[in-house]
Amino acid sequence: MKKWGVGFTLLLASTSILAKDIQLLNVSYDPTRELYEQYNKAFSAHWKQETGDNVVIRQSHGGSGKQATSVINGIEADVVTLALAYDVDAIAERGRIDKNWIKRLPDNSAPYTSTIVFLVRKGNPKQIHDWNDLIKPGVSVITPNPKSSGGARWNYLAAWGYALHTTITIRPKRRTLSKPCLKTLKCWTPARAAQPILSLNAVSVMC
C-alpha cells in the first residue's frame, strides 16, 4: 500500500512536469465574438482533460476583410475564421496557408452557415417582409460597409441572390432590385459601431 502511494505521487508529479502551457490566437470576424468565447472555453477544458495541457486562446475580432489584411501583414494567428472564402483566398495567395485550403475539410471547410434577417421598427409599419420591400418609397436601409465587413458582403449577395431567383428576367432584376436597394441606403455603418444594434448578418430597415 505504501509503494502504491509513492508511485501515485510520482505519477502526479510527472504529469504536472510534462503539462504544457499553450497560447493560441484566434483571428475572426465580429459576429463570432460570443460564439468563440464559449467554444474556446469548452475546447480548453476538453484539451486539459485529454492531455493535461493548459490552453489559453486569445481572440481578435473585426471586419472580415480587415482581419484578413492583418493576417497578410504578419499578425501571428494560429486559427483564422473569416466570413468569406474570398478573404481566406487572399491569405492563401500570399502563401500564409495552402491554396487548396477549401478542400481540406468537409463542406468546403465551412463549419457553419448563417442567414440574413431584417431589423425593422416596432410594429413593422412599412410591412417589410422580403428584399423587394426594401425599394419601397420611404424605406431606408442601414448596413455595415462591404469594403471592410464580410457580413455586409453577404447582405449584398443575399439581395443579389434573391433577384436572381425571382421570376423576372435576370437583367431587369439586377437593375430593379440591386441598384435601387443601394440607393435606399441611409448610411454605411462601421462594423464595430453596428455591433451593439444589429448583427453584421442583418439589414436594419428604417422608415
TrEMBL record:
InterPro entries: Sulphate/thiosulphate-bd_CS, Sulphate/thiosulphate_BS, Thiosulph/SO4-bd. SUPFAM superfamilies: Periplasmic binding protein-like II. Residues 1-19 form the signal peptide. GO terms for biological process: sulfate transmembrane transport. Its main location: periplasm. It is found in: Periplasm. One of its GO terms (molecular function) is molecular carrier activity. GO terms for cellular component: periplasmic space. Keywords: Periplasm, Signal, Sulfate transport, Transport. This protein specifically binds sulfate and is involved in its transmembrane transport. Belongs to the prokaryotic sulfate-binding protein family. NCBIfam families: 3a0106s03, PRK10752.1. This is Sulfate-binding protein. It comes from Salmonella enterica I. The gene is sbp.
